[in-house]
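Journal club side-thread
Mid-discussion, someone asked how the predicted structure for our own chain would compare to the paper's figures. Pasting it here so we can look after the session.
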Amino acid sequence: MSECTHDCSTCGQNCASRGKPQDLHEAPHKLSHIKKVIGVVSGKGGVGKSMTSAMMAVTMRRLGYKCGVLDADITGPSIPKLFGIHARAVGDDKGIWPIKSRTGIDIMSINLLLENEDDPVVWRGPVIAGAVKQFWQDVIWEDVDFLFVDMPPGTGDVPLTVFQTLPVDGILVVTSPQELVSMIVAKAVKMAQMMNVPILGVVENMSYVLCPDCGRHIQVFGDSHVDEIAEKYSLPVLAKMPIDPALAKNADEGLIETFAGDYLDNAAQKVAALLK
């Protein structure tokens, strides 16, 4: 028998020293109680990922669940704006406390820690990734059924840090109708598969505009390709959200919690099933 290298991944022997794969995820703050972590990802920016993260939290809150949103888009934070939050987060000897929205959703974003919310965050990748880890380890997510993580676009440092650090129970992939975006979504899907993170489904944003006169769906960005790419990867399309001026108005005014639309109800049911 050859000498043991303690690397079970390259060894075919079934010895007593063989152990289970090590869980490398970091533990959250000791006072946190988080049941499920849901990542919201996209292959590129500008497809409504933050809007989807916020609306998912709002929709789940209306179903009676306790929710939080971790804004992992450090250089482009927009979650506090959507919820109309301008206060600064505070900490004590226990840790950092998230800000609660009007309906009780816990929010943590770099904008809640800056002196001025419009100050730029000019940091290199490793520092940005470190801030995201702190939002997981140092923030007290006291009692949360679903923690939605609004990730920056792409497949770089922060998404990799989230997948490696947080025990992500599933991700929602956000896209828009253009064929180019479909190609980039494929990258996000493949990254999740490489990291063994379950993909709950796809949400298409800006899918159409509803004509106020005749009710016809107008495809502003041309024919949608979301069904094709979802079928290719055996994923469900959980929502096709329109360009809605009322929703945009609520978002601009920080009143995302007052929007009455039901666009993400199917996605919410998919997420809620994780607790059953």
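Post-session note: Residues 27-275 form a domain with the Rossmann fold fold (CATH 3.40.50.300).
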